[in-house]
């Protein structure tokens, strides 16, 4: 993970710290949720590398990191790119548990993925503590305008109704990607960073594992998937 | 079949037993065919890395006893009308699949077409209730009537208390493998034996189990006999597709063995020691791969990995491109280890552009950061040594040419050390560069292999002449050897080459094999 200090790609200029006093670095746990094939891994690859490549479906989960510099703080995004395939659903709570940011991704050219995103939202809401997670609805594949099935207005309406934030992106073209990451960073810093103990500080060797922050285990066994 | 005739060639140690520690001091300098297991070139010095199984037999032993029974069935008369549908006769039903949208883009194939029928090998998986689960070509929906016929056949013969194993007709073989709650069917136009085809079906079965566990599979079908398993396998068909492709191409799957990245033993030992030092409480296996080649494998004391499980890991890693950037973390069932539960594998590349992939297998699903930390410690250790550089250098020539062996007319060979479960083989020479030629070559090896491992008449050695090449296969208690000569070679030359080749492998074994596997 050698790209910790790369700038956010795609034009949006991030403010590197120009102040002389040391800026603190906080850890932000961000999870990507959504149906298989909506482009979660493609978004993640844009976030960390500003690249687009054809990817195969994720098995289990992928973990990537990306550092974002804000004016008064640096955020180290620890991104959990989950697998959308149904067989992995039983392990997904491991990843959204304790997340500061959750991106609910759907594909604007596939209505069922929009419906699926709402199911994810329900599941998230049964687990999360209000105010501890920034939930962002992301309509990806914005470049597929001609086969669009979910209008931007619909996405926006759902977000308004549920109190979420909303963006349409294209991992393919890079449209709105860096803006999204930056917006999430600001949101998380303002809403959660301000709270007492909202974000933990990053040390070079993090032995406080976020996995273990919340030890209550919603699933007794990962063998339980299915009907 | 308990009271039946003695089963040949299956009297080896039980598959799941841990190997005896074989510290051999008397390693022959000039090995000869017939030398004992554990002293052959490539045998590990301390303990084996893998479950010591008489690998191939281990895979098919369960099916063994039915082969004879099937032979009887075979002669029992003409194939029925139904059967002709299966083996692609003209009578094949016209299927009206026009209104069924194909699910997978790459599988948009008209299942009533000549092209569909002429594929060399079809593989179907269905549930015991007859629901389609997987087809190699075409879509499952379009094939539901064919699957129905298969189920009818399976249940017909099962009712007679005589489990159907295979049917032969018109250059086509249909092989059945009933592995409750799944039924696997192979339809092949190759000259592979039933046993070979069954072995391949077993692999496919294990592939599916590795995604879901057998416990889960059973659970699902107990609750809902009619369950559509494609829901849970959706998005993983490519793993099965790739495994089938490997079965056609990878000698390791044929030999029940894996091959190593050629690397000086001094460098390999440092890499192994660094992995050994980067241990953690729940870590069971640390596997370092370079593409499809093993660099090293360190395991928990008393825990053994089975080569089938390792091939499933190879297939998983080789098939997915996504974990290259970050670190992957996935549940995986290693069915030869335990069909009931999941391990959790941390999968990452040492560098994003590198071929070197590290797989850390833990028993704890919350172990991600511990595994990530192990990797870090391994890298820190390794980067201080010259071994890392040596390994990267070795990656530039991951194979060797057959000319280095210095045996005239020898074009290619496969050598497997039985006790270590490792094999070595040179790169294919120029004349076998094309895909078709390599698959043809694999077909020849498969043929030799099935002669050596024939269920009732296994051979110790087998020589075969053809217009395009001369082939020799040789098996002893210590190794298996398959040699391919140009058609100019003679039988005498082939036999004399065996000793010469074994000598060469002995000389190079430090580099070609993992002689001192470690445990933590
Ligand atoms: N046109 C278009 N295609 C995209 C876009 N993002 C991703 N894709 C394609 O959609 C397919 C799936 O993308 P992935 O990123 O693997 O999807 P995923 O959500 O990670 O899928 P799972 O890992 O199975 O959950 C790939 O073929 C991508 O190339 C996009 O913005 N526009
Ligand atoms: Mg993905």
Automatic annotation (TrEMBL), chain A:
It comes from the Eukaryota. InterPro entries: P-loop_NTPase (IPR027417), Rab_GTPases_membrane_traffic (IPR050209), Small_GTP-bd (IPR005225), Small_GTPase (IPR001806). The keyword Transferase does not apply. Keywords: GTP-binding, Nucleotide-binding. Transmembrane segments: none annotated. The keyword Ubl conjugation does not apply. It holds the Pfam family Ras. SMART domains: RAB, RAN, RAS, RHO. One of its GO terms (molecular function) is GTP binding. NCBIfam families: small_GTP. Belongs to the small GTPase superfamily. Rab family. This is RAB17, member RAS onco family. It comes from Sparus aurata. The lineage of its organism: Eukaryota, Metazoa, Chordata, Craniata, Vertebrata.
Automatic annotation (TrEMBL), chain B:
It holds the Pfam family Fuz_longin_3. Residues 91-110 have a biased composition (Basic and acidic residues). Residues 59-80 have a biased composition (Acidic residues). One of its GO terms (cellular component) is Mon1-Ccz1 complex. Residues 121-243 form the FUZ/MON1/HPS1 first Longin domain. InterPro entries: FUZ/MON1/HPS1_longin_1, FUZ/MON1/HPS1_longin_2, FUZ/MON1/HPS1_longin_3, Mon1. GO terms for biological process: protein targeting to vacuole; vesicle-mediated transport. Belongs to the MON1/SAND family. Plays an important role in membrane trafficking through the secretory apparatus. This is Vacuolar fusion protein MON1 homolog. It comes from Sparus aurata. The lineage of its organism: Eukaryota, Metazoa, Chordata, Craniata, Vertebrata.
């Amino acid at each position: 993970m050698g790209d910790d200090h790369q700038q956010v790609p795609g034009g949006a200029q991030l403010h590197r710290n120009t102040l002389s006093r040391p800026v603190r670095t906080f850890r932000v746990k961000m999870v990507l949720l959504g149906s298989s094939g909506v482009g979660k891994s493609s978004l993640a690859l844009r976030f960390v590398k500003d690249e687009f490549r054809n990817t195969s479906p994720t098995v289990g989960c992928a973990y990537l990191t990306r550092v974002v510099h804000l004016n008064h703080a640096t955020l180290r995004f620890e991104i959990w790119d989950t697998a959308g395939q149904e067989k992995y659903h039983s392990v997904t709570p491991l990843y959204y548990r304790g997340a500061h940011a959750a991106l609910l991704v759907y594909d604007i050219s596939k209505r069922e993925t929009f419906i699926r995103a709402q199911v994810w939202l329900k599941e998230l809401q049964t687990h999360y503590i209000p105010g501890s997670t920034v939930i962002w609805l992301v309509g990806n594949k914005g470049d597929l305008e001609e086969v669009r099935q979910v209008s931007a207005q619909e996405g926006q309406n759902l977000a308004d109704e549920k109190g979420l934030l909303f963006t349409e992106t294209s991992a393919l073209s890079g449209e709105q990607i860096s803006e999204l990451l930056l917006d999430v960073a600001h949101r998380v810093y303002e809403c959660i960073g301000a709270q007492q103990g909202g974000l933990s500080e990053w040390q070079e060797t993090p032995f406080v594992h976020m996995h273990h922050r919340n030890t209550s285990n919603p699933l007794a066994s990962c063998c339980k998937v299915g009907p | 079949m308990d009271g039946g005739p003695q089963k040949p060639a299956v009297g080896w140690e039980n598959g799941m037993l841990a190997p005896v520690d074989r510290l051999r001091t008397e390693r022959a300098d000039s090995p000869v065919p017939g030398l004992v297991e554990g002293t052959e070139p490539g045998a590990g010095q301390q303990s084996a890395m893998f479950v010591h199984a008489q690998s191939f037999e281990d895979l098919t032993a369960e099916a063994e006893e039915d082969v004879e029974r099937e032979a009887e069935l075979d002669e029992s008369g003409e194939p029925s009308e139904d059967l002709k549908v299966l083996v692609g006769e003209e009578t094949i039903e016209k299927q009206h699949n026009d209104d069924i949208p194909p699910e997978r883009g790459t599988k948009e194939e008209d299942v009533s077409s000549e092209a569909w029928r002429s594929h060399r090998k079809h593989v179907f998986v269905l549930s015991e209730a007859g629901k389609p689960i997987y087809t190699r070509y075409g879509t499952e929906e379009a094939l539901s009537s064919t699957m129905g016929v298969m189920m009818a056949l399976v249940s017909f013969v099962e009712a007679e208390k005589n489990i159907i194993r295979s049917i032969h007709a018109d250059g086509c073989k249909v092989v059945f493998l009933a592995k409750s709650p799944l039924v696997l069917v192979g339809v092949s136009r190759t000259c592979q034996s039933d046993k070979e085809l069954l072995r391949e079906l077993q692999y496919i079965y294990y592939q599916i189990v590795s995604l879901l566990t057998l416990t889960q599979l059973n659970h699902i079908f107990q609750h809902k006999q009619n369950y559509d398993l494609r829901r849970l396998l959706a998005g993983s068909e490519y793993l099965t597709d790739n495994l089938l492709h490997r079965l056609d191409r990878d000698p390791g799957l044929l030999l029940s063995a894996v091959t190593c990245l050629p690397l000086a033993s001094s460098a390999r030992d440092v890499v192994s020691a660094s992995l050994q030092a980067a241990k953690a409480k729940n870590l069971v296996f640390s596997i370092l791969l370079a593409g499809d080649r093993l660099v090293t494998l360190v395991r928990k004391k008393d825990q053994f990995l089975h080569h089938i499980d390792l091939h499933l890991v190879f297939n998983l890693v080789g098939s997915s491109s996504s974990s290259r950037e970050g670190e992957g973390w996935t549940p995986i069932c290693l069915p030869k280890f335990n069909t009931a539960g999941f391990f959790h594998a941390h999968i990452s590349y040492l560098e994003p552009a590198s071929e070197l992939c590290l797989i850390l297998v833990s028993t704890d699903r919350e172990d991600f950061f511990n595994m990530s930390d192990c990797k870090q410690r391994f890298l820190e250790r390794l980067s201080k040594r010259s071994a890392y550089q040596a390994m990267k250098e070795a990656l530039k020539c991951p194979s060797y040419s057959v000319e280095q062996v210095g045996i005239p007319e020898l074009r290619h060979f496969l050598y497997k050390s039985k006790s270590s479960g490792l094999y070595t083989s040179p790169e294919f020479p120029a004349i076998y560069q094309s895909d078709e030629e390599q698959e043809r070559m694999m077909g020849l090896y498969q043929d030799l292999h099935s002669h050596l491992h024939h269920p009732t008449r296994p051979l110790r050695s087998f020589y075969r002449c053809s217009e395009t090449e001369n082939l020799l296969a040789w098996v002893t208690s210590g190794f298996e050897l398959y040699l391919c000569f140009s058609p100019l070679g003679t039988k005498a030359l082939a036999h004399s080459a065996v000793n010469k080749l074994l000598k060469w492998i002995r000389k190079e074994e430090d580099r070609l094999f993992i002689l001192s596997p470690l445990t933590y």
